[in-house]
Amino acid sequence: MPTTESTVDDTATTALPDSPLPGSRPRRQLLLALIVLLTAAAGFCGFRWWQAEQAEDLRAGALERAREYAIALGTYDYRQFDDALAAVTDVSTPEFADKYRAVAGDLRGLVENGQGVSVATVSHAAVETLEADRATVLVFLDQDVQNVAVPDGRVDATRFLITLHRVDDRWLLQGADAK
């Protein structure tokens, strides 16, 4: 008698259900929503951080330029008056440079005849207002002044409200009001 052989696979095969387990779809949607929310929050926080960094760089630049420009305004030597004049006008808006040249022209004779020398230092400075293209900075300037009337020198304290205008990523001196 002929025998037939049949092989039986002893490994159990389990069919996966065609539909997801109950409740798994809402969990996936919740997880996806959470990922989207966290990504948006991270993007927003990163953008705000970038904005704060930009504002701080703008503030620091305005403060540094105002300090430099105040020193240029308060430093002069009768032997090199034109150099002191150029140190201010080279960093000024055209309008302020014209005004400063007029004032300096009136003072030239007084400084040269009195053999005036002044070395300025900034003791304190703070940004009062800041916009993208305009800043005002309060500067406390001390000038060590010597001339024929005060040969041993004296310190004059001047407070300036420096106005800056930003042109092509550069702060220019737009005004200097002594307070």
TrEMBL record:
Residues 1-15 have a biased composition (Low complexity). Keywords: Membrane, Transmembrane, Transmembrane helix. Its main location: membrane. It is found in: Membrane. Residues 1-21 are annotated as: Disordered. The chain crosses the membrane at residues 30-50. This is Mce-associated membrane protein.
